[in-house]
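TICKET: design request
STATUS: open
ATTACHED STRUCTURE:
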């Protein structure tokens, strides 16, 4: 199966998934009543960065990725989702706020698709996590999975999260970016090894990662708790697509130890790139040496070509890791 054409399908078994009419949906909260249609055609038509058609396409792509139905998009205080009845996807509603997304620097359909992939993950994960931070990180991870499977660039999406604050319900941007990158890495590694991704096996990788990162999550949570002890929290929506504390400044300053670790990560990643480049060179030489009639006949040539392709894949992954490490360091400096 072509990975670029593959989608994660996640369905609720309790209720058949019938298309919900935008004309019949009932919204109980006043903020949902702002608009029951897809984004109003008269709303900032001069905004070329996030035009209406792009928003609709992004939502469609995100829903298709999980194999769940499209639902109404309404003007709201921020990008978000109201899942409502957990037994069905049909009464879910997306919120959208162009000004909020523009202020975060979101641009392009891929970045917008990843935002609503995050929201669709909320639709599929209802009740899966008791901890709000873990659910948000899970949704970020699935956005990374989508990016990795479909070859989408995560730079803009990740950069917009990098400046967001931590809060009671959402981790800070650095931690969220780590889970996005891990999701993309998992998808790329599955693709490289011919593993068919499913909702279940992606979730298995995620849960192991959450367990492995438990100490880091706890560290960031303790840092947040220490900050809020002297602050009055006010709820505000951020790209996390739910209520968030706007009084907590994200990440603000990193400790010398954290900066030192990031520099070490860059050095380590650079060494890995060098090693993987050498592997590629070695296998290129072996391919050349085995390019004879005899070696083609006994399979040595095809074996060398296979190993060369594997080496190139590992090299490309190492380059991605190096670029990621450099981005983290640059953001922290």
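STATUS: resolved
RESOLUTION: sequence designed for all positions
ATTACHED SEQUENCE:
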């Amino acid at each position: 199966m072509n990975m670029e054409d593959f989608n994660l399908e996640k369905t609720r078994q309790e209720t058949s998934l019938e298309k919900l009419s935008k004309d019949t949906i009932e919204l109980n909260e006043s903020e949902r009543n702002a608009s029951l249609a897809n984004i109003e055609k008269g709303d900032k038509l001069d905004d070329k960065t996030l035009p209406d058609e792009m928003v609709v396409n992004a939502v469609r792509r995100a829903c298709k990725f999980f194999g769940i139905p499209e639902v109404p998009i309404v003007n709201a205080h921020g990008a978000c989702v109201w899942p409502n009845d957990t037994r069905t996807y049909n009464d879910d509603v997306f919120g959208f706020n162009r000004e909020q997304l523009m202020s975060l620097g979101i641009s392009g359909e891929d970045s917008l698709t990843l935002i609503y992939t995050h929201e669709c993950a909320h639709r599929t994960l209802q009740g899966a996590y008791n901890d709000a931070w873990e659910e948000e990180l899970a949704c970020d991870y699935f956005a990374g999975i989508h990016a990795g499977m479909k070859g989408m660039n995560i730079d803009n999406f990740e950069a917009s999260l990098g400046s967001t604050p931590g809060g009671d319900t959402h981790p800070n941007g650095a931690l969220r970016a780590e889970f996005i990158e891990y999701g993309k890495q998992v998808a790329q590694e599955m693709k490289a090894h011919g593993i068919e991704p499913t909702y279940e096996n992606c979730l298995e990788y995620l849960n192991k990662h959450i367990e492995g990162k438990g100490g880091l999550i706890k560290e960031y949570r303790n840092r947040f708790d220490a900050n809020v002890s002297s602050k009055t929290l006010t709820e505000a929506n951020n790209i996390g697509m739910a209520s968030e504390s706007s009084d907590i400044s994200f990440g603000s300053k990193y400790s010398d130890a954290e900066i030192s670790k990031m520099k070490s990560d860059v050095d380590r990643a650079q060494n890995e790139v060098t090693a993987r480049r050498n592997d590629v060179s070695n296998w290129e030489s072996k391919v050349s040496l085995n390019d004879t009639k005899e070696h083609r006949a006994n399979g040595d040539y095809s074996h060398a070509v296979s190993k060369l392709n594997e080496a190139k894949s590992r090299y490309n992954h190492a380059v991605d890791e190096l670029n990621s490490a450099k981005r983290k360091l640059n953001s922290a400096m």
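CLOSING REMARK: The chain has two domains: 3-222, 257-332. The CA atoms of residues 111 and 155 lie 9 Å apart.
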